Each structure stands twice: as C-alpha cells, then as structure tokens.
C-alpha cells in the first residue's frame, strides 16, 4: 500500500486537500472520482518526503495539538482500533495541513516498521513523551499511557498559561518604563540642554549626570545594542553545552527564594511522571529512568540518577532521593509512607499535586510583590529625570527675579 497526497475539487467547486492510501495511483484516482472529486494533483507522499526530509523532520506539533493527538490515540486504541488506522483517523481530523502532515508522516514510519516511539522522536516530540510511549508499547498499555500523558501535558500547559498571565502585566510595565526613560534621555534631554547652555551658569549635579548619561546613550547606542545582541547570542550558544547548563543551574540553586521554587517545581514534574508510569505498570527502575528526563535542573537530574542506582542495589526510593539533597523533606516523608503502605504511585501523584499548588501560590505572591515595585521604580526613574530638568529652570527663574 502507498500513501498519496491529492488536491481535488468537489461537486460544490470547493478545493480539497488530503491523503489517501491505495496500491496504485490509478486505484487512488478511481476512488477519488467515485467520491465525486475531480483530481487536480495526485502524487506519492514517499516522493514528497524524499525531497523534503529536513523540512518534515523539523516540523512538530504544538502543545495543544499534542494533547489532542494523545487523547484521540488513547480513545481509538482503547476501542480496539489498530494503531495504523488510529493514526490515519487522527491525521484526517487535524485542523491544519502542517499537523496533518506530521501525523501522516508518523503513520507512514509505523507502516515501514518503526515503533511509534521512534516515529515520534523523528518529529522532535518531548523525550518524556517518547519514553513513556515506548514503555506503553512494551507493556501493551499504550492507551493508558497516552491518557496519562495527555493529562500530564494538560497540567503543564495550564501552569504555563497561568504563569504567562501572571507575568504579562509586570513585563508590560517594565518595557513601557524602559521605553519612556530611553525616550526622555535620547530625545527630550538633548533639546533642553541647548536652553541651559544659552542661559549659562552652573548646572545642578543631578542635571549634569543626566546630561552625561544622555550623551553616552546617543554616542554609543548602536554599540550597546550590538553588545546586548552578542551577549544574548553567546548565552544561547553556551546553553547548548551541557556543562554550561550545569553551571548555570548550580548558580540558580544558590539563590534562596528561586532555589526553593525551582526544586519544588522539578520535584512536582518528576513525581507526577514517575507516579503515572508506576500506575501504568512500568517497572520502578525503567520508570525512574524515564521520569528523570522531566527534570530541568541538571544537578538534580544527576542526583536522581544516582538514586536509581541505589534502588537497584536494594535501597528505598526515599533514601536514594534523600542522598542528593534536592528533594524537599516533606516529599521524602510522603514517598516513604507510600513505599511502606504499598501505594507509592498514588502518593507520588499526591506529592505532585501539593507542590503544584504551592508553586502556583509562591509565583502569584512573588508577582504581587513585583508589580508595585516595578511601578515605584518607573516612577522614581521618570521623577529623577523630571527633577533634573526642572531644577535648572527653577534656578534660572530665581536669578531673573
């Protein structure tokens, strides 16, 4: 069977695009005509893929599309539909051509003999998703794993949206304040300087400082922009190296308030993923290896990997995680209780729920404090510029009187 991409016009004159699977191109054309479609273009997807391997490999689904994909996959497989047919149905239901091509390409690779996990990896799906799908394929519980993955991604997306909504207002205030300050320094101050120069006399120290800052920005503005761009580029390139990311994470963990928030967030991600895998029947060692990929802090990920080695040697999960010193004490106690009672999977998910709520509260509290501070900072900056401009004017008025 070969996969063909077609463009056709239906009986109402509307253009339709899609993909269809048949042994030959002739059979595909015949089937489309029987559907009342006038074929304008029909070509094998295989040929298209050979000419654009890099293009297709670089495409991936958005988070919301991935959640939808996993939910549909779970439902269709649970209903008894074969994997290839399920992928075909999902592809037909995708809302845009890009996502349809991604799912169709995944289906084609499965037809060619690849596992679903390997096919997802070629399209840059998250490592946690690919590893959990691989575990689901090995244990025969792909439907259950897909459901849990969809729930996991939905929670992450909800937290990201909540964080974005909370940070949007402070970011707008900060950006607006910086634009106002730069405008005053680069445009307003130079125009007033000429008035001061004609009037003569000594200027207040604050005014002299502001004028010097304005002259520096106007003279070196392009250089500052280039330096800032170079710094951003250098940081992006440095973060591609694992040792540099490790050093960055070590520095972040030395900041008291931020360190606590990062550790709780990563503990939540790890325990939720591990709990879902254990609930799905994956062995503890395999589940720990997959779950550690969800940790973004490299020092913590390394410590969790060492805990996995300790578990293999007979240690408990709580004792292994305690050795690294990154998992909060309350989480360790709850995990220990879960191990003793035989409800480790449920206890891990409860730990994740607790820390998700606590992290959300801490972020909101931090942003609530930041908003008035940013407003005050902007007011102080603009007020300082206003004082620097008004002080010489007041002094000139006094001299005139």
Q: Quick gist of this model?
A:
The protein is mostly helical. It has helices at residues 25-34, 45-51, 53-57, 63-78, 83-93, 97-111, 116-122, 127-139, 142-199, 205-238, 242-252, 256-279, 284-291, 298-312, 317-324, 329-341, 344-400; strands at 2-9, 15-22, 38-44. It is flat.
Describe the structure.
- By secondary structure, the protein is mostly helical.
- It has 2 domains: 1-51, Ubiquitin-like (UB roll); 162-401, Type II secretion system (T2SS), domain F (Receptor-associated Protein), CATH 1.20.81.
- The chain is 78% helix and 6% strand.
- The chain is built from 17 helices and 3 strands.
- A 3-stranded antiparallel sheet has the order 2-1-3.
Which SSEs are present, and which pair or pack?
Elements: E1 2-9, E2 15-22, H1 25-34, E3 38-44, H2 45-51, H3 53-57, H4 63-78, H5 83-93, H6 97-111, H7 116-122, H8 127-139, H9 142-199, H10 205-238, H11 242-252, H12 256-279, H13 284-291, H14 298-312, H15 317-324, H16 329-341, H17 344-400
Antiparallel strand pairs: 1-2, 1-3
| Spatial strand order of the main sheet | 2-1-3
Summarize the helix and strand pattern as letters.
EEHEHHHHHHHHHHHHHHHH
Question: Between the first and last Cα atoms, what is the distance in angstroms?
Answer: 97 Å
Tell me about the biggest sheet? 3 strands, antiparallel
The level-1 CATH class of the largest domain: Mainly Alpha
Shape: flat
- Write out the CATH superfamily name of the largest domain: Type II secretion system (T2SS), domain F
């Amino acid at each position: 069977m070969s996969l063909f991409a077609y463009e056709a016009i239906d009986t109402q004159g509307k253009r339709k695009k899609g993909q269809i699977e048949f042994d030959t191109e002739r059979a595909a054309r015949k089937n489309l005509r029987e559907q009342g479609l006038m074929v304008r273009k029909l070509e094998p997807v295989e040929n298209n893929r050979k000419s654009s391997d890099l293009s297709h490999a670089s495409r991936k689904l958005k988070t919301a599309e991935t959640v939808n994909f996993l939910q549909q996959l779970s439902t269709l497989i649970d209903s008894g539909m074969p994997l290839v047919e399920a992928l075909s149905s999902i592809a037909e239901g995708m809302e845009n051509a890009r996502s349809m091509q991604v799912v169709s390409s995944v289906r084609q690779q499965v037809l060619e003999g690849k596992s679903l996990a390997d096919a997802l990896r070629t399209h840059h799906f998250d490592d946690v998703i690919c590893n959990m799908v691989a575990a689901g394929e090995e244990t025969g519980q792909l439907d259950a794993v897909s459901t849990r993955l969809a729930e996991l991604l939905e929670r992450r997306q909800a937290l990201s949206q909540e964080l974005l909504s909370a940070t949007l207002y402070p970011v707008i205030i900060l950006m607006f304040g910086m634009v106002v300050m730069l405008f005053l320094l680069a445009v307003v101050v130079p125009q007033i300087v000429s008035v001061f120069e004609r009037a003569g006399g000594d200027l207040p120290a604050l005014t002299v400082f502001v004028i010097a800052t304005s002259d520096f920005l106007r003279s070196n503005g392009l250089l500052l922009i280039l330096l800032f761009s170079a710094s951003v580029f250098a940081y992006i390139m440095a973060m591609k190296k694992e040792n540099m990311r490790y050093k960055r994470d070590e520095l972040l963990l030395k900041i008291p308030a931020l360190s606590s928030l990062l550790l709780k967030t990563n503990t939540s991600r790890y325990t939720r993923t591990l709990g879902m895998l254990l609930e799905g029947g994956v062995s503890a060692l395999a589940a720990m290896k997959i779950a550690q990929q969800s940790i973004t802090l490299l020092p913590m990920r390394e410590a969790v990997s060492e805990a996995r080695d300790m578990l293999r040697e007979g240690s408990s999960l709580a004792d292994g995680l305690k050795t690294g010193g990154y998992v909060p004490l309350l989480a360790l106690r709850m995990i220990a209780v879960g191990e003793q009672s035989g409800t480790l999977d449920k206890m891990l998910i409860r730990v994740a729920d607790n820390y998700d709520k606590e992290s959300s509260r801490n972020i909101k509290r931090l942003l609530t404090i930041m908003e008035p501070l940013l407003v005050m900072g902007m007011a102080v900056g603009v007020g300082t510029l206003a004082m620097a401009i008004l002080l010489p004017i007041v002094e000139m008025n006094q001299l005139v009187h």
